[in-house]
Amino acid sequence: MNSWKTISVILIAVALILGGVTAYNIYDVYFVNHNSNNPLYVFTSVSTPTYKQDPVIGNYSFIIGSGTTFTNLGNKTLVASYVYINLTKIKIGDSFLVFAPVNNGSEITRIFYLKPIVNITILNDSVYISKGYKYLNLLIKVIYPAFVNDVEYDSATIILNYSIEVTSMIHIIDYTWLYVEFLALNSTVLKMEFYVGPTTF
After folding, report:
1. N or C: fewer beta carbons within 10 Å in the chain?
2. Distance CA 156, CA 164 (A)
3. For the segment 142-185, what is each residue's pLDDT rounded down to a tens digit?
4. How do 63-72 and 41-45 pair as beta strands?
5. Is residue 45 classed as helix, strand or coil in its secondary structure?
6. pTM, rounded to two decimals
7. Closest CA to 150 of 34, 8, 60
8. Nearest Cα to 199, choosing from 118, 112, 105?
9. Exposed (0-12), middle (13-18) or buried (19+): which is 4, by Cβ within 10 Å?
10. End-to-end distance of the chain based on CA atoms, in angstroms?
11. Spans of all domains in the chain
């Protein structure tokens, strides 16, 4: 009789442990405290990308188009949002809000996953000529409203009138980054592409 009780207790314990492991693998949620001044955040490993077809939040006279792209990378699909910026209309200090798609494999807070909004501010957009090429030097400030007081800066130098793409990686947390790609379509239109993803796809 005692052996049945022991076996029952062991089976219940095994079932609870397996149930907990299964739930952990399904949701893949854990707590991280990176700074004692910040509260604990709930992080999740993304298995379903989040995006919007029209990623720009608000109306801006210098944005002349926007959208979302899907690129097949073999066993994964990369989702990215893009904006077309009219360089003749943008001024230093102009900013805009964009919904940056969060791709599979990203580890991110649930609050950012549900609302991955990025605030981009143009701090410098100077044009100069060197060795016969015309360059655009762009400095941006990135604010993630989901992360209080988190501000990042990044810069890119783009050759105008050449289809050479420049990619910047802006660290969000651990192995997850905001990728910002810059491509000058011509001397007056700049394409900026945004997506959140892991270090490697």
Report:
1. N
2. 12
3. 887 776 556 777 777 777 766 677 787 887 777 888 899 888 88
4. unpaired
5. strand
6. 0.73
7. 34
8. 105
9. exposed
10. 55
11. 2-32, 46-198
